[in-house]
Amino acid sequence: MAVSESPRKLLPTTETRKLLIKWLVALLVPISVFTFVWLGEQIINQIWLGILYPQNPLYDHDLWSLSLQAIFMLIVYLSTIVLAGYLVAADSGRRSTIEVWCDVVFAAVIPLILLASTANLLIGLGLGVVIWGIYLFVRNRVRLAMGYTPPPPLESLHVIDEQGRAALVRLAQQAGFWFATIFAVISLIADLVFYASGQLPDLLLIWVVARTILLPVVGYFLGRLGGVIALRYVIRPDAGVEESKNDQAEKGRTGWRSNARKVSREQQLHSLSASRAKEEAKDVIPNDRPLQSKGATRIYLLILMAFVVLYPILDPILFGSGSKGRITSYGDLGFYVILALGLNIVVGFAGLLDLGYVAFFVIGTYAWSMVGSSQFYKLTGIIANPSTFSWFFWPMIIIAAVITALWGILLGAPTLRLRGDYLAIVTLGFGEIIPIVFTQMDKYTNGTDGIAGVYSPATPCIGSFCINWSNSPTPYYYLILIIIGACIFANVRLRDSKLGRAWIAIREDEIAASSSGINLVNTKLFAFAAGAFFAGIAGVYHAAKLGTVAPGDFNSTDSIIYLAMVVIGGLGSIPGVLVGAVVVYAINLLILNQLDTYATDPNNILHILPQLLPNFTFDNIRNLLFGIILVAIMIFRPEGLIPSARRQRELRHTKNEDEEVEASALDQPPGTPEFEAEMHVE
């Protein structure tokens, strides 16, 4: 198939108008629902009222809190305007308007309404995911019934010259301007209604007028920013990858890059297999699914990061009372995320089935408990002053992680000759042994009584401001966010390193990896040590946050839960295991308990279940529901919710694609530009 070499011209006026209407309506609906249905406008008004009326006890007057709320609202609204410009510039225009609107309604509007109606983050998102899954299932079945076949991804590729890129930016500017203008008018009408009903003070009319005037101007420039983002993913006439020439002597003297030439980006994509071409082409602009492209995903991540970082400030506003309990539970969720990241190294990267991962978590937990508590006096005879020993929490994060990594090596050493089921059985035995050992070590661990009074971390005071670790869950929430960020960074660096590629090679084919010169012994031991290292970090955090540790808190079924996080999220996928940890933790410990609370409320529709089934509770069918979810995931999406590209290609490839790859590889003789383009693209 040929790639069009003609520059992308300005769309006809009618087509431009249709494209603008499609995306403006698609984005204005969810942003309006957030603004006028789920407290968005109320948050903005409360910020101004707290600043302008400092004597009124009904409003929050904490300037720090108000500033963070204002930052979040700015990020949400400004990012949405940028997204409008990006989507209009990135859309190929081939997908129908109705289909796009349905996608946005089920992906954004319905979850927002559920969040507003349930006032519970995980319940609302969980129901939204279920509805989204049903919608995708029905949509795919309708397409099959209608004989719909998606166009080949490479047919939508276009080389965009300077004139075409300028046209894209102008289109994005129009989108940003009109989106901001329409939203300003809608907000103005809503505020006038509030003012007429006496809910809006006269002083805030100044803000209303200023916002109405400024939004279109801001929208113009933010739309342009969306267009600039879109330009990063277009194919330029001179875009390409470097390819070595055949002069080996010159290459040896001057190095690879000093002796290279360009292969065009479209040649590069055409040389890929069908599955690889589909993955690469979905981010090239213009395309058929701009909502799922890389540029849009980065804007989503910006909004998500702002929400996660500012959540303790937003929780009481968005979800009402009970903030302390919710923030505490999300702090507990954090160490599940770290455990999933660590186990993903062992199982996802290296392919070593570990069913005893809980043992490393136990070791890390006790490492800090025996140092950061009165137990230290029983061990050494040294009186542990809490105000002093609390400071040892920070070095103990690394020390305990290193100790746990050494235990990982001790476990890995005798299992190097084992694979598959045999390795799983040995690690399962290790997971059973360690908690029992700590139970029997009365002198060191207090046996079955465990260790109580584990110290919280200590931090210096800034002036009169001191972090309250004892009575507030917020410091632990931010601590776990920082630790998770560091662990994700380490995981990414490990995955992309020489060691990470060796792990993947062992997972794919251990014999071939050994034949390629990979040291199987050292590489496997590094995998066990790295996975145990992260479990040790999670254990130290867990001990400090909980304040007490007992061997009864750990059992071998926990390892199954941790493995389920990795499998459900996606083996080898870092974003996948993050989502898997959230899903498993939410279902196992939060959502079902909340459903039981709803079932006991006579005014809730779920109250009918205990009436029809005496002694019914969702907690009693926890394992049943969890098992059904696991079976459904394995049947319909075995690669996980957010799979790695490599894993998805393994499980979703077809015979035709395999044949196409073989023909492509054999048809191109070595040394030709086509052969080199195929060999050097990853």
Give the tags:
single chain, about 675 residues, mainly alpha, two-stranded antiparallel ribbon, two-stranded antiparallel sheet, 30 helices, about 70% helix, about 0% strand, globular, disordered C terminus, transmembrane, transmembrane helix, LivM-like
Descriptive notes:
- This protein is mainly alpha-helical.
- The chain is 69% helix and 2% strand.
- It contains 30 helices and four strands.
- The protein has helices spanning 13-36, 40-52, 63-90, 97-118, 121-146, 162-196, 205-231, 248-254, 265-270, 274-281, 294-309, 311-319, 323-349, 358-369, 375-380, 386-389, 393-412, 421-440, 442-445, 474-496, 498-508, 510-515, 520-546, 556-569, 574-599, 608-612, 622-636, 645-652, 655-667, 673-679, and strands spanning 240-244, 260-264, 451-452, 548-549.
- The strands form two sheets. The chain has a two-stranded antiparallel ribbon with strand order 1-2. A two-stranded antiparallel sheet has the order 3-4.
- Helix 4 (97-118) runs antiparallel to helix 5 (121-146).
- The protein is globular, with a radius of gyration of 28 Å.
- Residues 1-10, 241-261, 654-669 and 678-682 have low confidence and may be disordered.
Task: State the end-to-end distance.
Answer: 22 Å
Class from secondary-structure proportions: mainly alpha
Number of helices: 30
**How many E-type strands?**
4
Shape: globular
Low-confidence stretches: 1-10, 241-261, 654-669, 678-682
Structure summary:
This protein is mainly α and 682 residues long. It has helices at residues 13-36, 40-52, 63-90, 97-118, 121-146, 162-196, 205-231, 248-254, 265-270, 274-281, 294-309, 311-319, 323-349, 358-369, 375-380, 386-389, 393-412, 421-440, 442-445, 474-496, 498-508, 510-515, 520-546, 556-569, 574-599, 608-612, 622-636, 645-652, 655-667, 673-679; strands at 240-244, 260-264, 451-452, 548-549.
